[in-house]
Amino acid sequence: MKKIAAGLLAIMLLTGCSNNNNEQTLFVENSKEKYALVDLEGESKTKFIYDKYETVGNSGFIVVQDDKYGYILNDGSEAIKLGKYKKLESIANMLVGYDKDENITILNSEGEKLYQQSDDVKIELTGLPVIKDGKDYIVLYDTGEQLVNTNDKIVSAYTIDDNYTLVNYEKEASLYYHLTEEEPLSIKAGGDNQLMDHDDKKGYLLYNRDDHEVRALDTEGKVLFTTEQELDDLYYDSENNIIGVLNQTTYIFNNKGNIKETNSYYYNYRNYVVKNANTIYGPHTFVNDGKEIEVDGIQLDPLASQIREEIFPVYVRDEGYQYYGFDGKAAFKTVYESAEVFDSNGLAVVSKEEDKYYLINTDNKKISDEYQRIEYLGRNYYAGYTSGSRYEVFNSDGDVVIEDSFMGEGTVFKYNDIVYGIFNNSGTSYVYDMEDYEVLFHVEGDLEFNDAGYFVTVENDGYYTLDGEEIYKR
């Protein structure tokens, strides 16, 4: 078993470190589907008594036993006794307790009471709790710290990633970045604006669900545009386009607030496709650098959406698949039996005949060998199936990187600056360091990675650290 440097094993397992000590803990499940808290050595911090749990920030867990709610800290100590509240929920890294009459209590991450609803104390649960205590309006954030205390009426408060908080007043708003000591940005926008997304280079996106106002701000908080559009979601995509979504329709915004509507492939505001909703083979509207072109005789993928390259697969009637550009023309003459969208590596899976799939680049150059099928594993790795169930692992250059072949599902991911691969062979899972393609460890069963920083079998009967040390096995 290969060991990873100890410094890279400072993982935040599910909860991270307790406020009371530096012990790292996680929940494990026994054969009776009950949960207990253990440390990395597998030492129990609680008994197997809980039916379910919910992580609250880096401090503790809401736990449920026989429909009774409680709260324990990372070291297993009981902070809120089971049944004290009818129900407990998390809000940011705090807790909301409900009594039998649905009255609200706000508690910090240690389970300590901060505010309780009464005739004099009003509590609004927006993205963050907003408290009206007499004449004072208070916003709590993170683990229960007070962010704002003012006599000015606060409408709502929202947060993203615990780092950014928008506090809304009636005629303006304040935007806080908690990783600096700087004063909050002053936003000329009042009302119940939700902070939807943030990008370090582009800025911020706000949405008011009451009047459907969309606002884009630059990194200094200046309003770039305000427009109206009913939306379910609003975000920056991977290419930093401003994207809104309502049901099955995608809206692309430019920096002036102008909107383009698409229900098919899009690259940016000036390059996209509008699929004919009534006729499968068109004519469809292609928009190339802002110019509209009608294209018929082709069928578009009903699930088409954002693409990373400016060419995409279409089905040409009575012929097969070809790659088209937004100019409505074939990018190259080759016709395929099947063709997929180009991925983040600039590669696409194609085939000219059944069971002979390979990768091409955007120049139509063949990159890999032919396989019965190809699946993307993550990062720049692929599974090339040499039979119906067995595959080999190759990279975006088409080179096979591991001599062994595997079965079942595989995955490649990055965590703590290390790229891992999980592959299964004859019922045993192998975890690889994908830098030198050496096995870190192997265990029986199908292994998965938990985003909190550990490995667990799909049956939840085995838990392992990043270097394969057994935490718990039933």
UniProtKB/TrEMBL annotation:
Question: For this UniProt entry, which residues form the secretion signal?
Answer: 1-20
This protein is called what? Answer: WG repeat-containing protein
Keywords from UniProt, A to Z, are: Signal
**Organism of derivation:** Candidatus Erysipelatoclostridium merdavium
Q: Does the keyword Signal apply?
A: yes
